[in-house]
Amino acid sequence: MLGTAQATLWCPAQNQPPLPRPQDEALARQALATRTVMRWPPPEEPASNPAAQSAAAQEPAPAVMAAPLWRANGEPLAALVVSRPHPPFSELDAQLLGGIAAIGTTTLERLEGVEALRRRAEEFQKLSDLSHLTATLTDPAQVARRILAECRSFLGAEVAAFLDIDGQPVVTDGHASPGLLAALGAPQVLAPDGQMTAPVQQDGLVVGQVGLLWRPARPLPHAARPLLDRAAELIGQALERRAHLAALEATQEGALLTLGLALELRDFETAGHTRRVVRQALALGAALGLGPEELEGLRQGAYLHDIGKLAVPDRILLKPGPLDPDEWRVMQEHAAVGDGLTRSIATLHPLARAVIRHHHERWDGRGYPDGLAGAAIPLVARVFSVVDTYDALTSHRVYKAAWPPEAAILELQAQAGHQFDPVIVAVFIQLLRAQPDPLAGLQETPAD
């Protein structure tokens, strides 16, 4: 339309190759500054001017024209620069290029708007993805590792890191040299050297920060701030969740121990029985290869194994002599009663109830309350039965003296395959033999 050999859209705010000639860039800047179409050679130089004709004959220069593109908000967008070998551009050419530039401005702003909407959609999607990614994770380090990897990849950063309050790295993603990690420095909103950080808070207190580093420094993505803030928030939530769970576990542990000690006092058992059987049961369970869930059920059940004795009358529970058949029948009911009592404790581990109900079952099927035999008896109950019997034998009671450890070990061996699981007995005896004194640190003074 204009007979041009070359057309360039030049944006001064972006890093792009310079125009072919310095005077072309100067013309583009002049067009943006004056908001008018600029031509070279200028229209005021008449072609009939002998000096101009002589210069053109000696060194013909291409005709150049630049039209400004301005945003609707008054900010410069770009300059449309066109050139041709000859002839010079006319006023009509300038008007035509100005119209093309106006259409181009509208089109570019629409394209930028569409691109901005696309970026915002991606940001919202990534914010949603971060929440979903961490929904099944409980460990704060795992949460931080997953989130930082996603943020670094999406934002094109070189390094992402979670630092503690002293600036020491807890989790890093990317090639994080000590120098780059040290560059994160104190929390700040936006640093000029391609760095961004956000504080991590736990229960309202700053406990660290997350940071992103770009090298070499560059304009930071618009999505960096909302994504980094969300990452810091999710890591803080994971830290709070872990602290709250630890507090709940400590509260539960104290409640279980208190109840166990109360049962000790009512049964006149040797002081420390509850702590000993819990400790020994967990050691034996670990030696047998029980997993975390089984050990937790065993631990809770060990605390509450005799809770059913709350329903046994004192005249039976505290009787110094042998029980008659009717009394023994009432005593045997404590295992099933304990199971029933603990059904209403929603937070109690299911395997704990297996310990409470079945720790008086026998390997040969002659135990109570259900007469289970062999492997039909829950493993946690078989483990606890051995530990509980050994502690009862080696402890002083109002109706008997404490047995020597070796005598108690011989009794366990004699009952292996009858009362107890023989494999569990063998492993427990190995644990006892490995101790210089089988009762060291376990047996305490009898209760008054």
TrEMBL record:
Compositional bias per record (Low complexity), positions renumbered to this chain = 46-60
Q: What is its EC number?
A: 3.1.4.-
Q: Which domain of life is it from?
A: Bacteria
Keywords assigned by UniProt? Answer: Hydrolase
HD-GYP domain mapped to chain residues: 248-444
One Pfam family from the UniProt entry? HD_5
Q: Where is this region: Disordered?
A: 1-22, 40-60
The family database entries (SUPFAM superfamilies) matched by this protein are listed as: GAF domain-like, HD-domain/PDEase-like
> Is Hydrolase given among the entry's keywords?
yes
**Which Gene Ontology molecular function entries are recorded, alphabetically?**
hydrolase activity
The cross-references to InterPro entries, in alphabetical order and at most eight, read: Cyclic_di-GMP/3'3'-cGAMP_PDE (IPR052020), GAF-like_dom_sf (IPR029016), HD/PDEase_dom (IPR003607), HD_GYP_dom (IPR037522)
Which Gene3D superfamilies does this chain map to?
3.30.450.40, Hypothetical protein af1432 (1.10.3210.10)
Q: Which PANTHER family match?
A: CYCLIC DI-GMP PHOSPHODIESTERASE TM_0186-RELATED
Which protein are we looking at? HD-GYP domain-containing protein
